[in-house]
Q: What sequence folds into this?
């Protein structure tokens, strides 16, 4: 079975057909997706700006991460679910959209950036948590995260116009 057959089978599922044929389901999914990405970016931006030493300098980075991470993950889960449902409704078209694949690539890089941060600078956060400016690796992670997530948002909006 080739990828095209898999994509067509995905589009042929009852839920994908329901989303595609309904006049309101896709826009509702898209609305939840956009609200979710706003929450993801908002919570991540607060932490990233702290990592850059720009904002929330009176709060420790660890405290911000611990307080905001649960909201980030819930919003991200909502984005994944709504994104998968929207993809299923028109999988063959999305699979041919280069902007979609650029967005997925930036998402993967954002995840990799987060992993590198958590395996690196975050492991020694108790050493630099209240120091300004944070260490270079933390600042690089914060800047990279902001740039990658802004790219994800821009490309996500661009998908519908290509």
A:
């Amino acid at each position: 079975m080739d990828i095209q057959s898999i994509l067509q089978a995905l589009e042929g599922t009852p839920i994908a057909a329901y989303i595609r044929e309904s006049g309101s389901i896709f826009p509702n999914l898209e609305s939840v997706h956009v609200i979710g990405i706003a929450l993801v970016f908002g919570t991540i931006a607060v932490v990233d700006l702290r990592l850059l030493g720009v904002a929330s300098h009176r709060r420790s980075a660890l405290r911000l991460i611990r307080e905001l991470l649960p909201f980030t993950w819930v919003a991200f889960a909502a984005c994944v679910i709504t994104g998968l449902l929207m993809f299923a409704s028109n999988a063959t078209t999305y699979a041919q959209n280069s902007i979609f694949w650029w967005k997925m690539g930036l998402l993967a890089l954002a995840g990799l950036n987060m992993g590198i941060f958590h395996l690196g600078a975050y492991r020694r956060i108790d050493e630099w948590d209240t120091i300004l400016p944070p260490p270079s690796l933390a600042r690089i992670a914060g800047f990279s995260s902001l740039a990658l997530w802004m790219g994800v948002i821009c490309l996500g909006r661009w998908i519908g116009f290509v």
About this structure: Helices lie at 3-11, 14-21, 25-51, 61-89, 91-95, 98-119, 125-128, 136-159.
